[in-house]
Amino acid sequence: MTYFFETYGCEMNIAESAAVEQLLIARGWKQAASAQVADLAIINTCSVRGSAEERIEGRLGWFNGLKAVRSCKIGAKTKLLDQAVEYVKDGPKPLTLVVMGCMAERMLNEFHIKFPFVDYVVGTYAKHHFGEIITAIEEGRKPFEVDDSEKYQFAEVSAEPGAFSTFVPIMHGCNNFCTYCIVPYVRGREVSRPVNEILKELDILNSYGVREITLIGQNVNSYHGLAGDSSISVPDAENVTFAQLLQLIANHLKNTQSKIEWVRFMSSHPKDFTDDVIDVIAKNPVICHHIHLPVQHGSTAVLKKMNRVYTREQYLQLVQKIKNKIPDVSLTTDIMMGFPTETEEDVELTLDLMRQVKYESAMMYFYNPREGTPAAKMEQLPESVRKERLQRVIDLQLEHTHEQMSKRIGMEVKVLAESVSRDDKNELLGQTQQHEKVAFLADKSLIGNFVNVKITSLNGNTFKGQII
Fold first, then answer.
1. pLDDT at 76 over 60
2. How many CB atoms are closer than 10 A to CB 15?
3. What pLDDT digit, counting tens, does each position of 208-239 carry?
4. Are the C-beta atoms of residues 20 and 127 closer than 8 Å to each other?
5. Which residues of 266-301 are buried (b: 16+ CB within 10 A; e: fewer)?
């Protein structure tokens, strides 16, 4: 039998899709060439913005049509469904449609009413039912109602098949309740994964040939987990901090002579980025010198309205500490413009903060009200104002990106070769420890390996280089 995935949203969704895919593969399922010819289609949804849900609703309408074609209930051809029509010319071939993720969790009680053609709605806390769902499909049984659980369960492995760079979930949920964000309402309170389970997954990933991992969670540096094993030496086995976890991972990879050579993490909340985390990064070469540190805004007044629990001054002090301890660090961020009550003075404070920090890159967007959050009830700025302010931030960041990346021209760097370049089939595209893209002439047999490259030039936001 065959499956097809569509995954929207964050790194956690990617990891959770990969975990379900591992389960399907273990049961003998194969990946379909397209949704039109799959036995099972799974849509992993995102709710972080209303626009994300609108896009998913559009896709669900398309899948409704596909299911009708596959059941031979309609005979009309459309360009998008031609392949499906050809597929069912000898009779019906039903498609099971599963929706999982944050949108499924947010609309749990109403999803089947609004989208009755969806066979299974699997909320954030119900993924452990996938084994039963797969069995029901294999046995041709009718869909059953999926019950939610009160406890989030981490998958044993969350790697995509064949991946040499993958995500490793270490915690789930969020306790911060930023006034613009729906994540705490759909992901729930913070839950940290035990250390022994994380280390066990690293061993499995090493056996798969993985070379790079990214530790993920809604707020990784608020991690407080159990050791989970008496052999794991920490001062408090029931309250392992993120800094301690990073050191335990670095020690474990070294002691097991693991092929995993790079460790990344995201996302971080500035309020939880402690001095000991900076120290651990600085003294362990296996932990990459790239930190994504979302500031969201440069005005203390706006940060307070956002409930970010730090001031502009505290954020800048943190950045200076990081730069002092890790001089070659690459800093990236998230910036939101047009938040309710934002003034021109607030905009200038944000631009000024950017000039002081000099981010290498940034995720930049204008505020969109999210139903169910406190900020959605505040008085909104006109969209034209929000967009104009965002454009000023984008223009400045483009200058900083070029300035910061130009400093690396002429350097010799370690690069993980990731894929063949789309622009030149004779080139490979790789990534530096600082999370920068590099294109260089090389044979595709090097994909998945580390190589030393001299950076020779900068083309847009991608370096050009030569293998040393």
1. no
2. 23
3. 999 999 999 999 999 999 999 989 999 999 99
4. yes
5. bbbbbbbbeeebbbbbbebebbbbbbbbbbbbbbbb
Q: Are 451 and 467 in contact (CB under 8 A)?
A: yes
Distance from C-alpha of 379 to C-alpha of 383, rounded to nearest angstrom: 12
Tokens of 44: 């992993």
Give ∠ CA 254-259-261 in degrees, rounded to 5: 70
Q: How many residues does the chain have?
A: 468
Which DSSP string corresponds to 157-212? --PPTT-SEEEEE-EE--S---TT--HHHHH-S-EEPPHHHHHHHHHHHHHHT--E
3-class state of residue 361 by DSSP = strand
CA-nearest of 290, 287, 242 to 261 is 287
Question: What percent of the chain stands above pLDDT 90?
Answer: 84
First-to-last CA distance in the chain?
Answer: 46
- The amino acid occupying position 24 is L
Structure tokens at 249: 């991972």
The pTM assigned to this predicted structure is 0.90
Q: Which residue has the tokens 């071939």?
A: 93
What share of the chain in percent tops pLDDT 70? 97
Residue with tokens 């449609």: 97
**Beta strand ranges found along 315-360 (DSSP E):** 330-337
Looking at 20-34, 138-152, 367-381, 429-443, which range is the least confident one?
A: 138-152
Residue 313 burial (C-beta neighbours within 10 Å; 0-12, 13-18, 19+): exposed
* φ, ψ of residue 244 in degrees (nearest 5): -65, -40
Band of the pLDDT at 156, cuts 50, 70, 90?
very high
Rounded Cα distance between 234 and 229, Å, is: 10
Between CA 167 and CA 158 the distance in angstroms is 7
